[in-house]
Amino acid sequence: MAVIPNKDTFVPLRIDADQVCVDYNGNLALYDASLKLQPGCICGLVGMNGAGKTTFFKALMGFVRPSRGRILINGCSVSTAQKDQAVAYVPQNEGVDCSFPVSVWDVVMMGRYGSMNFLRVPRESDHIAVFDALERVDLIDFRNRPIGALSGGQRKRAFVARAIAQRASVLLLDEPFAGVDIRTEKLMADLFLQLRQDGRSILISTHDLSHVRNFCDVVVLINKTVLAYGNTSDVFTSENLSMTFGGMKSDPISGPISSDE
Ligand SMILES: Nc1ncnc2c1ncn2[C@@H]1O[C@H](COP(=O)(O)OP(=O)(O)OP(=O)(O)O)[C@@H](O)[C@H]1O
């Protein structure tokens, strides 16, 4: 029986990644990485450049196939979750041609495509979802502008709006705070807290430790594998952070130093 919601049904989801390994043509990017993401939770994914954060997101989205390990979303496979649009991914840098004359409204409407038929004629519910998402990121006045005419920070907000319009239960946000001004940072932080209150789960990769301390319920420290995972206050120790960012005291491939589950 399907346990993944579809269309506008919203059901809190749980993610279980168990000992996931990903390699790119023999180069190991992720090794034995495990995490559990509960509904209504904000989880920070923290690690230095090349630690495997984006690779983890791609595995959760089914863009790369783990060579070992298992990912379940409410007990279903990643491909089932994708079919039902249950998980939305906002990449670090959107691969869109911003000179292409597409409006902000149309970009956010793309989040609705999965629930439309092949003619892609938006219904009233699609218009409402797009309007609501644009209001939540404070871009409603920019809806008719070409996406290329937005600043980098505004564009990031537009892509977050697209994920919200998709009505996904889980949002995977790759460096959402990188390169945004303080106003956008505050707006996004407030928005993520609201989305958590709605029962959505949010996984955020970031280098900025202050964001993690401020609003992540749990944190995953990663360097090719999960070095530490658990409540932010328990995991954010200077020893764990120096192992994640400083000189490694152990081979990351040898396994996690702690895990609460
Ligand atoms: N398509 C690819 N082909 C080969 N190697 C890759 C590919 N994508 C990533 N890698 C390698 O996998 C490792 C993890 O990369 P990944 O992009 O997941 O790191 P990251 O933690 O997201 O880094 P950053 O913080 O710089 O975005 C890196 O060593 C990277 O060079």
From TrEMBL:
GO terms of molecular function: ATP binding; ATP hydrolysis activity
Domain ABC transporter intervals: 15-249
The keyword DNA damage is assigned to this record: no
Keywords assigned: ATP-binding, Nucleotide-binding, Transport
SMART domains listed in its UniProt record: AAA
Gene3D superfamilies per the UniProt record, alphabetical: P-loop containing nucleotide triphosphate hydrolases
A Pfam family annotated for this UniProt entry: ABC_tran
The organism's place on the tree of life at top rank: Bacteria
UniProt record similarity statement: Belongs to the ABC transporter superfamily.
Official protein name in the record: ABC-type Mn2+/Zn2+ transport system ATPase component
Organism: Prochlorococcus marinus (strain SARG / CCMP1375 / SS120)
